[in-house]
Amino acid sequence: MNKLEELYRESGEIAPYARGYLDYLKDVLDKLDETSVAAFVDVLLKARDRGARVFFIGNGGSAVTASHFANDLSIGTRSWKKPFRVLSLTDNTAVLTAIANDNGYEEIFVEQLKAQLEEGDVVVAISASGNSPNVVRAIEYANARGAVTVGLTGFDGGKLRKLSRLSLPTETKPGEYGPVEDVHLIVNHLIGSFLMLACRAES
């Protein structure tokens, strides 16, 4: 039984469940390693300095977080003279459905990376389980092509945590998608706001 199931069994009503969820989210956030966050920021800044691109990937809720990250880093930082070159590979419906139809869903990110990825680029994979085949294949391909790979994971991190050159784990019990995705979005806003202010200080 995971924590959310336990909270529901104990409460059965929304108000106490809400309080329990929020308290649990605080506990999960307290375990977030700020040195890993700092290392992720360093990866992004170095990519910006060398003009490398940063690709975000993910499924479901993580796909939306990938899009959100791409928006906040490429546009939200307002760094026009020295931009963060960020793309989410979850956003082109025609590309995603063509690859899924022709090659299988497991290939939707690898096929895009084959067309786009260059050595020294960054691939950031967001996955609660860390075991999504399309994400795992993309990171394996990116590693083989000399990219910098970053994994934002949940649960026990799965295969993604082991494959990524830099890992930002959100450790929870299996099935606790909500808290994991909450933390990933908080990391997005934390990093995005920091880089926005850092870029503003440069001008």
Oligomer: single chain
When the domains are counted, the total is: 2
Low-confidence residue ranges: none
Question: How much of the polypeptide forms β-strand, as a percent range?
Answer: 5-15%
What gross morphology would you assign?
globular
Mean pLDDT: 97
User: What is the structural class?
Assistant: alpha/beta
In CATH's first tier, which class of the largest domain applies? Alpha Beta
Number of helices: 9
Work out the helicity level: 55-70%
Distance between the termini: 51 Å
CATH superfamily of the largest domain: Glucose-6-phosphate isomerase like protein, domain 1
Report the order of strands and helices: HHHEHEHHEHEHEH
- Strands of the widest sheet, in order across it, are 2-1-3-4-5
Give the name of the CATH architecture of the largest domain. 3-Layer(aba) Sandwich
Profile the largest sheet: 5 strands, parallel
Q: Roughly how many Å is the radius of gyration?
A: 17 Å
